[in-house]
Design a protein that fits this description.
2 domains; 4-stranded antiparallel sheet; Immunoglobulin-like; mainly beta
Length: 254
Amino acid sequence: MKCLALFIACTLIFPGLAVDGKVKPLDVIKVTILVKNETGDPIKYAWIFAELWKGLTPLKKKGSTDEQGKCTFRWIASTGYLKIRVEAPYYFKGYLSKSIEAPGDYQFNITLYHAPPLDEIPKARIEGKVSFVLLNIPIKGAIVETYPVLSSVECYVPEGGGTKTREDGKFPPLPVLCLNTLRLEDGKMVYDYNRSTKCVVEVTIYNLVWRRTIEAYPNETIWLDIHVFSLLWLLNYILETRHLGNICTAYYQC
């Protein structure tokens, strides 16, 4: 009786598993992605983001390529629409869209093209000052970093690649990689200096992070007045100055 109830429940939940009272084998879709560069060499450790769409909700998977540049995914599903995105450091991203059916064993080749060296990518510059909100007191020692939001190229954001504010709260110029100026045309890299790149400016004080998104064009210099609030920094500032005179003076000058 329990087996019969379990069989009926499975039939109601997974109607494709039983036909005429007989168990039907599950349909399996196997997809192998082979990632190479423009010279035909395999790219190892590339990230692959896969989505199999059937209806409104995709079946998502994520993996990375092996030494041979291969990565394999399996789904228990019927016909669907496959979307693949491949990312690797210092390469243009690769994409694939394809309708596939089950059961099936598919293999797709995706070619990634090298991005130019970082010193050849057009850059903008960000300068500015970090101060305490309302009081306009300059904040010394805040860590300021920048990185692009989205681009056609997947690049590393170097650890410790930012800078720190000085006594006056100002920080030295920071380069911004204008990655959106790069695009591929017939497998060749083309620069478009009329396109802007969205980038994030991060300010870190006592492990608290403030983020601001801006748009930058190649060879542009941007000045930012960044106002932040940190109670821990304020308490430390009061202890260091040993009186509230500086704060009161700054407040009435605002």
